[in-house]
Write a structure and sequence with these properties.
This protein is an alpha+beta fold and about 200 residues long. It has one domain: Immunoglobulin-like (Sandwich). It is built from four helices and eight strands, in the order H-E-E-E-E-E-H-H-E-E-E-H. Strand 2 and strand 3 form a beta hairpin.
Length: about 200
């Protein structure tokens, strides 16, 4: 009886940890002109990491970029395209650009934590058209776009007002998920072995 209680407790803890890990997801993208629509010959490159936690209503955005042909004018995340990793979409995040994003430069870095429960984090059109008019709906639609590969970060410049470099965000498997699977495997094997022994 004690063994069953112990196994049930382990399973409950693992499920709780897995649920917590599922709420916070990291997405990354490599930015280039070749990914723009239409593609361009910009030598600019960049990378972005977005850590989106729908449970705590936080979104951390880290961007590094260099080699742009002209100074930056804006940066934001667009969502949601009709098909993964292709097409264009309206701006999902705040307008006219991310708070504190460096404009007037051809290279730089950016890091900011957004409160996704605030209306100011979102483009009002995204809230209306994708979020059903609510911030909670916008968060859910944005998460769905990130998960499906239909959201992209775009850097706009004087050379390309519609976007000089962009990249579609893709989920990164979390090490915690693999660790939980590794921790749970012995419990499952032990339970299977004991059942066979009876």
């Amino acid at each position: 009886m004690l063994q069953r209680v112990t196994m049930a407790a382990c399973a409950t803890i693992a499920l709780g940890l897995a649920t917590t890990a599922a709420n916070a997801t990291v997405y990354t993208a490599t930015l280039s002109g070749a990914i723009e629509a239409p593609p361009n010959e910009s030598p600019g490159t960049g990378s972005v990491t977005v850590d989106f936690d729908i449970a705590t209503h936080t979104m951390t955005i880290d961007v590094t970029f260099s080699g742009l042909l002209a100074p930056t004018t804006a940066a934001h995340i667009h969502c949601c395209t009709a098909a993964p990793e292709t097409g264009t979409a309206g701006v999902a995040t705040e307008l006219p650009t991310f708070t504190g994003f460096p404009t007037g430069v051809t290279s730089g870095t950016y890091s900011h934590v957004f409160d996704t429960s605030l209306a100011a984090t979102w483009n009002p059109n995204f809230v209306t058209n994708f979020g059903g008019g609510t911030i909670a709906g916008a968060e859910a639609a944005f998460m769905a776009g990130l998960e499906s590969g239909t959201a992209y970060l775009n850097l706009h410049t004087e050379f390309a007002p519609g976007g000089e470099i962009r990249g579609f965000l893709q989920p990164v498997p979390e090490p915690a998920t693999f660790a939980l699977l590794a921790l749970g495997a012995p419990v499952v094997l032990l339970a299977a072995r004991r059942r066979r022994g009876k």
